[in-house]
Amino acid sequence: MKCGRDLVTTAAWLAVAAAGCSEAEGPQFAPAPGQLAHVSEGRLDQPDIFLMNADGSGRVNLSDTLAVDGGPSWSPDGTKLVFESFRHGNDEIYVMNADGTGVTRLTADTSLDAQPAWAPGGTRIAFVSNRDGNLEIYLMDTGGGNVTRVTNDGANDVQPAWSPDGARLAFVTDRDGNGEIYVMDSTGANALNRTAHAAEDLTPAWSPDGSKIAFMSDRDGDFAIYVMNADGSGVVRLTTSVVAYEQPTWSPDGAYVAFDDGNDIWVMRADGTELRNITRSTFRLDHTPRWRPAVP
Fold it and tell me: What is the dihedral of CA 54, 290, 214, 157, to 10 degrees?
C-alpha cells in the first residue's frame, strides 16, 4: 500500500519541502473555534505532541521528551489524550492529561502498538498492532486491559476511526491491493468497502453528526482532502492545491476541517472555503491535527 505517509506509525512522516507549500495570504477570516492537538517536529527532529488554539496561537508542548511521540487522540470529554510513543524502545500506547501531566503506559508488548483512537463512549480505545503477525485493529479498555482483536484478515488493517455513536469503525486496508476505506461494526462484523477506487484512500475522519467521512486521496493525481457520505456516495474534493493535503479532522460543531500538508496545519470551512495556514512553520514540521472535543 503506497501512501503519503507510513501507515505503520504516525511518527514517521513524509516531510514535504517548505518551498511551494504556502498559498497566498488571501483575505483574513474569523478564527475557527477551539483547540487542536498536533505533532510538531523541531528540536533535534524529535516529534512531540503540542496543543494550540485553532488560529495557531498559544502553542504548548505537552509531551516534551526526546522520544518519538505521535498519533494523538482525544478522550470524549477533552480532558485526556491517548498517543503512541517510542520512549521505551518500541511503539507503545500511552495516555496523559490534556496539560501533559499524568503520563501512563497502556500497552507493554514487544510488537508494534500504534494509532490509538478513543471511543465516543469513553471506555474503549481502538489501536493497531502486529502482535499476531500482520497489522490488525484491536480494542482495549482505557486502562489497557481486555485487549480484543477486531479484524482478522491477511491484509493490513490500520487507521481506525470511530463513528460518533461508537457503533462503527472506519479503517484503511490493503485487502483489495490498494488503500481503501472500509466501515465495519465495532465488533468487526459487516466490513464494507466505502471507497472502492483504484487510488489510495486514507485517514478517514467522521463528521460529528456521523453523516460524512472526510479522507485523503490521490485519485486525481495529488493527495487532497475529500468528503463523502458515510455510505460512500457523494464524493466531493475539498482542496485544490497541488500540495499533498493529509490527515483531516473535524471541529466539534462540524463547521470546519483541519488538516496538514506535512509541513503546516491548515483550517478551512467544511465546504472547502476560507482556507488558511495556521502554523506557517519555518524550522519545524507541524502535522496530525486532532480537534479537541468541546469541553463543558
Answer: 170
- 15 phi, psi to nearest 5 deg: -85, 110
What's the whole-model pTM score? 0.90
Per the DSSP assignment, residues forming a β-bridge with 256 are: 269
User: Domain 35-158+242-291's class?
Assistant: mainly beta
Beta carbons within 10 angstroms of residue 153's beta carbon: 16
Q: Report residue 2's pLDDT band, with 50, 70 and 90 as the boundaries.
A: very low
**Band of residue 44 on the pLDDT scale cut at 50, 70, 90:** low
pLDDT tens digits, one per residue of 259-270: 999 999 999 999
Helix (H, G, I), strand (E, B) or coil at 44: helix
Who contacts 248 (Cβ-Cβ below 8 Å, separation ≥6)?
203, 205, 214, 215, 216, 225, 257, 258, 259
Instruction: State mean pLDDT over 19-47.
Output: 75
Query: ∠ at Cα 280 (29, 71), nearest 5°?
Result: 100
**Could you state, in order of their start, the residue ranges of all structural domains in the chain?**
35-158+242-291
CB 65 within 8 A of CB 287: no
- What is the Cα–Cα distance from 151 to 137, expressed in whole angstroms? 6
CB contact set of 244 (below 8 Å; sequence gap of 6+): 4, 14, 16, 222, 223, 261, 262
| Other C-beta atoms lying within 10 Å of the C-beta of residue 172 | 27
Measure CA 125 to chain center. 14
Cα angle vertex 261, ends 1, 78, to 5°?
Answer: 95
Describe the strand order of the beta sheet including 60-61 as a list of residue ranges.
Answer: 60-61, 47-53, 35-41, 285-291
Grid coordinates representing 214 are: 472526510
Dist CA 184 CA 150 (whole Å): 10
Q: Which helix (H) or strand (E) holds 95?
A: strand 92-97
Are the C-beta atoms of 93 and 113 separated by less than 8 Å?
yes
